[in-house]
Write a sequence for this structure.
């Protein structure tokens, strides 16, 4: 994250001076649509979902993730979606002014933030490419392959329920479930709740 390669004493000293920590109950709104974007938000505990005006899931953020870094540096100064806690959630806030000051004064922090922004851009491009596939099967297979590469494993947990994954892949849940079951029946993958295992990479990529 932004304090990677910063010694613990320095990190704690910085956070003590400039961060504010708040707790949110389950389903409590953290940022609402049209709220001003004035600070960086880091999840110390819990999880946060991003939903649109119709409460459709857009993204989920988990512990130790920053939920709004790209937005903090965008031209827009308001949130276009709603951010809601999924459980008891603790978030640390650092103002945009303090973030800019840190970037100016600390080369390591500046590099870390630039890396995170680049990483976000790459993930966004991956998602756009994933959605460009015509069939649900192709979208789901590409999603599995991306997760496998990202986690460097053939067996891995994903952050989404099947309903959330269907929204992420822009398809109907029951149709996604059918495709997943077909791949299981073909002996290509295995699935238990949020745990997925790629059994045969060659057949999966055919």
């Amino acid at each position: 994250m932004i304090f990677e390669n910063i010694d613990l004493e320095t990190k704690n000293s910085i956070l003590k001076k400039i961060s504010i920590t708040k707790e949110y109950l389950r389903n409590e709104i953290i940022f609402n649509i049209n709220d001003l974007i004035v600070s960086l938000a880091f999840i110390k505990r819990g999880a946060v979902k991003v939903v649109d005006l119709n409460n459709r899931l857009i993204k989920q953020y988990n512990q130790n993730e920053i939920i709004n870094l790209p937005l903090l540096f965008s031209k827009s100064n308001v949130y276009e979606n709603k951010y809601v806690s999924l459980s008891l959630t603790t978030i640390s806030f650092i103002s945009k002014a303090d973030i800019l000051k840190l970037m100016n004064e600390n080369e390591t922090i500046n590099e870390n933030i630039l890396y995170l922004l680049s990483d976000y851009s790459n993930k966004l491009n991956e998602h756009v490419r994933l959605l460009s596939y015509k069939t649900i099967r192709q979208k789901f297979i590409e999603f599995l392959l991306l997760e496998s590469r990202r986690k460097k494993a053939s067996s891995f947990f994903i952050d989404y329920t099947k309903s959330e994954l269907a929204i992420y892949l822009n398809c109907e849940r029951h149709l996604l479930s059918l495709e997943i079951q077909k791949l299981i029946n073909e002996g290509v993958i295995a699935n238990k709740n949020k745990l997925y295992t790629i059994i045969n990479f060659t057949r999966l990529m055919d």
Remarks:
- The longest strand covers residues 39-45.
- Residues 188 and 200 are 5 Å apart (CA to CA).
- The radius of gyration is 19 Å.
